[in-house]
Amino acid sequence: MAQSDGTQTGNSKRDAYHHGNLRAQLLEAVEQLVEEKGAENFSIAEAARRAGVSSAAPYRHFADKDEVLKALVMQAMNRMIESMSAVMAEFPPGDVDRINALGREYIDFARDHPGMFRLVFGISESHDGDEDLAEQGAATFGIVIRAVAEHLGLSADDPEATRRAYILWTIVHGHSWLTIDGKAKQQGVDFPLSEMLSAVSNMVLAQGDSGR
Amino acid sequence: MAQSDGTQTGNSKRDAYHHGNLRAQLLEAVEQLVEEKGAENFSIAEAARRAGVSSAAPYRHFADKDEVLKALVMQAMNRMIESMSAVMAEFPPGDVDRINALGREYIDFARDHPGMFRLVFGISESHDGDEDLAEQGAATFGIVIRAVAEHLGLSADDPEATRRAYILWTIVHGHSWLTIDGKAKQQGVDFPLSEMLSAVSNMVLAQGDSGR
DNA sequence: GTGGCTATGTAAGTGATACTTACATATGTA
DNA sequence: TACATATGTAAGTATCACTTACATAGCCAC
Question: What is the spatial distance, in angstroms and rounded to an integer, between the CA atom of A116 and the C1' atom of D17?
Answer without folding.
Answer: 22
